[in-house]
Amino acid sequence: MSVRELYVKGARVWIPDQEQVWRCAELTKDYKNHLVAVIYENSQTDDIKVKSDEHLPPLRNPDILIGENDLTSLSYLHEPAVLYNLQVRFCNHNAIYTYCGIVLVAINPYEELPIYGPDTISAYRGHSMGDLDPHIFAVAEEAFTQMERENKDQSIIVSGESGAGKTVSAKYAMRYFASVGGSDSETQIEKKILASNPIMEAIGNAKTTRNDNSSRFGKYIELDFTRKYSIMGANMRTYLLEKSRVVFQAPEERNYHIFYQLCSASSDEKLKHLKLGSPESFHYMNQGLREAPKRSSKTRQGHQDNFHYLKQGRSPHIEGVDDAADFQETCRAFSLLGMNEATQEQMFTILAGILHLGNVTFEEDSGDSSTIDKKDKSLHIAAELLGIQLEDIQKWLCHRKIVSGREVFTKPMTFTEATFSRDALAKHIYAKLFDWIVMQINKCFAATEKPFRFIGVLDIYGFETFEINSFEQFCINYANEKLQQQFNQHVFKLEQEEYVKEQIEWEFINFYDNQPCIDLIESKLGILDLLDEECRMPKGSDQSWVEKLYDKCKKWDHFSKPRLSNTSFLISHFADKVGYECAGFLEKNRDTVSEDQISILKSSQIKLVHALFTERETKAMTKVKVLPSAPPHSKSKQMKKTVGSQFRESLNLLMLTLNSTTPHYVRCIKPNDDKMAFTFDPTRAIQQLRACGVLETVRISAAGYPSRWTYNEFFCRYRVLCNSKDIKWNDMRVTCERIIANMINDEDKFKFGRTKIFFRAGQVAYMEKLRADRLSACGVMIQKHVRMFLHRNRFRTMRKAAVTIQRYSRGTAARRRVHHMRQTAAAIRIQACVRGWVKFVQYRRLVYTITQLQAHARGAWARKRYEHMRRVRAAIVIQKNIRSWLTREHFKKAMLGIVILQGMVRCFLARKKLKKLKIEAKSVEHQKKLNKGLENKIISLQQKLTEMKHENNFIKGYKEEITVLKGHMVEMKLLEVQQKNSTNRIAELEAKVSALTEEVEKERGEKMDVLTEKEQAEKDNREIVEKLNAENVRLSEELEKAQKEESKKESEELLRRKFEAEKQQIIMEGSDEKSAYQRLLKEFNRLEQKNDILEEQLVRVKGSNVHKRTASNVSNISGASDAPTELVRDDASEFSSIIGDDDWMSDIGYGSVRSRASEFSDSSRNLENIDWSSPSHKANTEIKIHVPEKVEDITLVLQLQNKVRELEKERRSLAKQIDQLESSSPMDDPQHAQELIRLQELEMENAKLKDDLNRLRKSIADSEPQNNRVQEFMKQFEALQDELERRREECIQLRTVLANRAHDLRSLTQTSYGKDVDIVNEDGELALAYQTQKQVNRRQLEEELKTEKLRYRESASEYKGELERLRRDNERQQKLLAQNLTKGDGSNPETLLQSEIMRLTSENLTSDSLMPLQPPQNLQGQVDSLTEQLKKYKRSLRAYAKKLKEAGGSGSKRSSAQGSPYGGDPPDLLDVNATHEGEVMPVIRKKERDYMGMFEYDRREEMQIIRVLIYELKPRVAVTFLPGLPAYILFMCIRHTDHINDDEKVRSLLNNIVNGVKRVIKKRHEDLDSTVLWLSNVLRLLHNLKQYSGDKAFQAENTVKQNEQSLKNFDLSEYRQVLSDIAVWIYNGVIKLMEEKVQPLIVPSILEHEAITGLSGNKPGGMRGRAGSLARELESPVEPQKALDLLLKEMTQFYRTLAMFGTDPELITQVFRQIFYFICAGSLNNLLLRKDMCHWSKGMQIRYNLSHLEQWTRDMRLHESGVTDTLAPIIQAAQLLQARKTDDDVHSICDMCDKLSVSQIIKILNLYTPADEFEERVPITFIHKIQAKLQERAEGEQAQATLLMNTKFAFPVRFPFNPSSIHLEDVELPEALPLGMLKKV
């Protein structure tokens, strides 16, 4: 492959640039004639002339390789590729970590990132480098894993310049080791290691111009590990503390943080004695501020203006840092490390003394001397705080001793010398204090035993170069030269080992060796040697030293002299050439302090100050001999080492340590100098990359074979470049050789290793180009055929369309022609019709016109004629009227005259007649005629008088009747009053009403006809009205009903919403409380287990003779609050579907419940099979039975006596129940309400009768309308009566409604609220309804009580009759026994009989003593009393026996000829044959016992019971029992302790149960079957304690028998709490076991499993190159193709195990909800940390794999319980990978990913990388739009602030109450359990 093949048109290259370092460009034409024509991204063109092919611009990598996790995986390895890849990852993907071979490049983001939490630590645990995204935790995990596997010490070297993040990286590495290597000791050394960070940052870090928290010293921390690889201790070594910062700070810098923290807390009462003002007052802490500082809002104001040591930097505040809070954290760290408050106070006193010492001012005196003012307050305070004499320190700050021979002189110091001496003393004190604190920390870290292995973390300064470089920069760069040499050698070694491992031929790789530079510094007559020599010279100076360097070091190539300076020198370091100024080198190297000042400090009164300056001197004096004649300290002064020599020795020791370990490298990069978040400055970055060795690593990798592919990966990637005939499926290496032979001709460009193919740099890009060309050619070929197919189809479609168009067009033309012809014919026809119509219209118009003219003419003529005739007629009428008027006037005049004439004649005749009448009136005849009329009138008056008398008599009788009625009315008033006072007078009123009713009926009969007619008319009218109004009424009712329903629905919906909101709030609060409680419980169990382990270790240490605590001594109280439970009914209908074996299912559980007695008969057969019609029950009560000579079973009598006792006990229990029923109220049911309504209806009927009576009274009152008093009385009576009836009706209706509502409300509340119905009446609204209902039901309840009493008395009589019958049987058996004894066959059984009688008597007395309510009596007394009762109930028994016989009780398989009184032949009969005188002996039935559901045991056998049921019970045995059988047995034992009221016994039993379960779980905590077994049994015992506790809330579903079996004497609620805590503990253990089994299957089954064939979801491993760990190559523990099936198999096994042991379905749901959450968290966390998984095809594979889990939940019927909801985050992540990512999809993606946090969504989009170059990348603008859209949701997203899901999160577990339907009396002990000591009672 030639250069010209690569540099062709379209190739992309990198062009050097002054500003951007490198610019991207593209070739516009092929390279030739040493001319490269390029075009930049801004469309600028340029022609670049190159000298040769070696100087061609570097080529760019393919886009598919951009953003790779490992820089060495790039095809082209050069500087621009490395720089651009880091920039893309940092700016576009927000990825701060990148691998570069074995080096981790960490770029400081200047922003807090959520990638360091415990979940991230868990995600990286167990993964090698390269499996997940680059991270500091991956490096730490690599070191930890190599220490575990190889048993070799490890080191992590963190380097970088100030502000690059070295300290933070080292801190996170130590945090990882502290998390994964947590110690088991009580010291918790890992917490102390983390606590040392704030201390070291406070005393060793300071603000610089480049970093706000810059480490001004180097440190190497060794973390010591035990053989179990847990942290046991640590050790810290420090290097080159920058002491000069204590007394001097450059502008914009600060002193060490501890000074500012101390001043910020100066107002504290504990620090008042330090006399600290504000930090600005200290000279050492604020030097060189050019303007007023901007103070943080969190920093206290006005505390930094008083000290010289604090005001040189003039930048006392750091934005966003609260010094006061940091001081409190530092104090807490000191306390955690074991430093008490007194020690801390002494440290702070020394620090304050240093600050006050800096404020001491000197005054120049005459000559070359200086003095201190005696009134200097700072000197007084400093002397007081340091505990030294004021005069001494005042003297020796201004003077010094000079030793000349044997004489000692005191010489005053100049102002400059005094100032330097003061500063040197301050630096020395601080350095001593710093070393002492480090020593104390190491003492706290120190381990008691020798460590097994250690991991060292080196946090050291990187290469530094400034404008003025001094001694500190020289030492720093010297250390970096040593580290770079070690780094180069290690990288070269790893490269060579890789080649040897793969068995390929290789040549020696040349790399930069900086040994000459190191020799220049540390060899003989080197820089350090000459510096030490100059320091020993009496008059040595910096200038003389640098001149020696010019002379002695000029032979070194790395040394040079600047042209324009005689005080500096240049050294060519591996990173850059650095110039050093010689000023200050000698003083800093000497680091001298006046010995007189040291002596003063040694005599300090403060213990810590004294200890700082005496400890090391004492050690030194033991090694150095001192001559008596020599001056003091002269020898020690000669033996004192310089700073340079000390640093060289410590550095050499460090290198020895590093070379003995396996190193791991972290290179920290500072992206910009402005401390801006995610801003990348290429110029600054490339400087650091060159300095830190990253590019050297790239160069070494590029010199060899940087690209490595496995054969399978190479074949999968480049299969398109070979033919099918070249493929050899059984040998991939041969196939790959054939492929490469066709592509690359130069054999030096590749090598075939044992498992991999190695390629030179650039070959992968070349092969990618060939692959892209082949794919493009294939694409063109496919496009050609597709386009041909499309065009052919298009042509065919067009041709077919053209033919169709022609056919349709011709048809259209023909149709148009025919249509035209039709239109023409039609037009002609229309024209003819129109023309005819027009002519016709014209003719009609003409005729009409002529006719109108004729009509008008004729009309005018006729009107004229008519007018003439009208005038003639009018004239005739006028003439007629005039003539008639004249005639009438003439007639009137004639008549008037005639009338006047007649009147005058008649008046004359009348006067004449009047005279005649006057004469006749005076005669007698006339008087007689007059008297005759008067007699007639008198007679008529007498007749009227007689009639009036009769009427008067009638009225008197009527008045008497009225008086009687008034009496009746008074009586009715009295009755009405009595009716108001008592309702019991209704019967009397009904009698009177019946009498009045008969009278009313008589009157009603008379009025019947009239009423019938009236009713008929009214009926007709009503029908008409009803017909008219029916529709209106119906519509009104419907409207009203609809409105009511709507309002009801609205109110119900409002109440439901309110209830749901309150319910959700309560559930959330309860869940939070329960979760917190369970976390505390889990921590308690962990500490308890840890305590047990420590006790066992203590026992092993002390010896085997030490007494061990037993499990019985362990406390069983594990919590203070009960975990809430829910009253949920268990539904175990799915259990039968889990196990397929029917035989196995038939034997589960109830095999242990079956008993031999229960197979024979049930309890309902005690009287049904007795033949009461036998002769022995007819006449005589005494039965004569001939007993045979031999009796088979002599204990038959004893059994019958036991039956008698049991029946007597049952009789007493029945009598007790009757008494309870008599004293209790009957249950309220709907039937009572119905009967109550019937009673009210009768009362309403009574009211109607009263109404009829009122109408009768009204009719009586109407008969006397004149009597006003009667009318008034009747009106008042009617008003009172109406009011009374209205009130009564209202009360009755109200009571009826209340009765129905009470029942409905009770049903509703029980449906809605379960058993907690008390919350319905929390406001007391049911009180009124209760009182009303109570009054109404009083009489009804009394009647029902009477009925119940009668019924139970009848039942009691029946049972008493049965007892009497058994008593008679007992008498017969006694006689039988007596006759048997008298007719023995010689073998006298008197001894046996005597013993049996004695035993029977003792048992009789014992049974009598257990019944305190009955006086002691013997068996004969009981028989006598039963005989008396038999006589009373004999008749009732016969009747009952007759009913039983009619019901079929006499049916029998045995022959009736035998005379057996029993009607059946069950297998438990004792048959006695007839052998004596032909008579038959009756067959005796063995009656089944009525058990009480408890087991009696001896307390001495208690531990045996616990051993059998708990310790020795195996899961394979327990699975054959009833689920929860041990819990049932233990509870039945508890019931017996409650029955006998033995407090000590029940406490001992429960304690042993609790301790036994704990012991078994601790012993078998790794056995899933055992933990599930006891989880199920503990819960069953807990449910039983609740079910039989007597609490009504737990008795809703109990039977009467179960309620009777409730605990009577003990309240075991506290033990319920203990059992609940144990169940939570076991549940957590089950979850832990399941998670451990599932954890290795999560990633292979969910992420790596590829079930969709042809759709590769994994990116080829060759793309990752060297991203994997070079030290190990571990394969996945499970094959991905089998992982999903294994996961589903494990889940199914879990489910079957839970169901097999009878675990509650609700708890099973909670278990798998937790497991699914763990699966989701593990897979999502892994996906978020794997860039190679984030592409479209992998999203498809993940979603398909998750569908199998969803289907599994449906198969197991768990999908309705919301188990799969916990998989929502990983499902949405898979959907996000598959989703289209355009600007139009922003809203849909945000809505789709509602279960993912903002950081998770952005992380996935940043990690999204196309698996192939033909897929488009996610634009940065799209990610920004998504981020902006999600900011709204991020405001309320607090719980999802972290990137990774919390894998330790646990849902709060609830144990719903699950009552058992199994009766305790049916539980039997299986034969597999040796529990003979238990006796069923």
Task: Provide an overview of this structure.
This protein has 1881 residues and is α+β, with helices and mostly antiparallel strands. It is 58% helix and 6% strand. It contains 53 helices and 27 strands. A hairpin with a 2-residue loop joins strand 14 and strand 15 (407-412). The longest helix has 158 residues, at 763-920. The chain is extended. About 12% of the residues have low confidence.
Beta-sheet strand percentage? 5-15%
Low-confidence stretches: 288-302, 617-639, 1104-1195, 1224-1229, 1315-1323, 1383-1389, 1405-1418, 1448-1487, 1660-1675
Number of helices: 53
Instruction: Indicate the mean pLDDT.
Output: 76
End-to-end Cα distance: 98 Å
Short description:
The protein is α+β, with helices and mostly antiparallel strands and 1881 residues long. It is built from 53 helices and 27 strands.
Keywords:
extended, 53 helices, alpha+beta, 4-stranded antiparallel sheet, 58% helix, 27 strands
List the helices and strands and how they pair.
Blueprint: H1 3-6, E1 12-17, E2 21-27, E3 35-40, E4 45-49, H2 79-92, E5 97-100, E6 103-107, H3 118-124, H4 136-150, E7 154-159, H5 166-180, H6 189-204, E8 205-206, E9 214-215, E10 218-225, E11 231-239, H7 257-264, H8 323-336, H9 341-358, E12 363-364, E13 370-371, H10 377-386, H11 390-396, E14 399-404, E15 407-412, H12 415-445, E16 453-459, H13 471-502, H14 515-522, H15 527-536, H16 542-552, E17 559-560, E18 568-572, E19 577-581, H17 585-590, H18 595-602, H19 607-621, H20 634-639, H21 643-659, E20 662-669, H22 682-692, H23 694-703, E21 707-710, H24 711-718, H25 732-743, E22 750-752, E23 756-759, H26 763-920, H27 925-981, H28 986-1006, H29 1008-1102, H30 1135-1138, H31 1142-1147, H32 1156-1160, H33 1196-1223, H34 1230-1262, H35 1268-1313, H36 1327-1382, H37 1390-1409, H38 1419-1432, H39 1434-1449, E24 1469-1470, E25 1484-1485, E26 1495-1496, H40 1502-1511, H41 1515-1518, H42 1525-1539, H43 1543-1563, H44 1568-1587, H45 1600-1604, H46 1613-1648, H47 1680-1700, H48 1705-1728, H49 1736-1755, H50 1768-1778, H51 1786-1792, H52 1798-1807, H53 1820-1834, E27 1879-1880
Parallel strand pairs: 6-20, 7-16, 7-20
Antiparallel strand pairs: 1-2, 2-3, 3-4, 5-6, 8-9, 10-11, 10-16, 12-13, 14-15, 17-18, 18-19, 21-23, 22-23, 24-25, 26-27
